[in-house]
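This part of the workshop introduces the protein records we will be handling. Backbone structure tokens are a discrete shorthand for how the chain folds in space. Once this layout is familiar, the rest of the handout is easier to follow. The record below serves as our worked example for the rest of this section.
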Amino acid sequence: MAADDREILREVWQGKLPICFSLADDEEKSSSIREPCFLLVSRLTYITLIAEKILKHFKKGEELPEGEELWFEFNNQPLKWHYPVGVLFDLLTHNTPLPWNVKIHFKSFPEDELLHCESKEVVEAHFMSSIKEADILKHRGQVINNMQKRDHKQLWQGLQNDKFDQFWTINRRLMERTNEEPFRSIPLRIYQRDKMYIQRLAKPVSGTGEPLNLGHVLKRLLPDRFNNSENLNNRALIHGVEVPTETPVQWLSEHLSHPDNFLHIVVLPREAAEP
């Protein structure tokens, strides 16, 4: 891996968001602690992985009573724990003044809007499932299947403990090309407000072997939003940054994928994404 490539990966890894966690108005009796909890949170993590710190603040580390489960909400919208934190922020609040103000709940879990997540093991299972799916798309699953269980564990612990070197010592193998050939397909998910994310096959090269860029992919998957070369009405954000549509998707996959090995692309109307 070239030095400049590693620097890009490290810059992505170090992306953080200041978040202010406070009790929801209807949770006043859930805790004697009224002061909010301020945390600097990795854009790459899952919000439930910081639950212990929040519980330590509001519940003084005590276990939740039966029937209670910690969940998060912003502007009356429950936050999906299986979306990376940075994706949630870009999708729901892009350019909202910081810190991001997130409400916490212990009761009235929104069964019809959120999946239950009762332990870190649930997050780990989701994370590893995504990595395996991504490698099937890139390498027919050959790389992840040839790894040992301790390698899988190191990937998870690197993310969980926010350890760049621990994670990338293993993950670099998942990002290598086979015989210098591009990936078979690019693992990606496209997010839009008030819609389910889109996940479809996206090839890194055309049928004639020409590299495909982000603009090609967006025009094919979202023709109603990217139907002209100027792309005046929408922006595509990865890690909170607008990505030039002429960027090759192979390069994006190798350098800007989340730890789950997927490219998470947030598409917003330009007026919603402008400062």
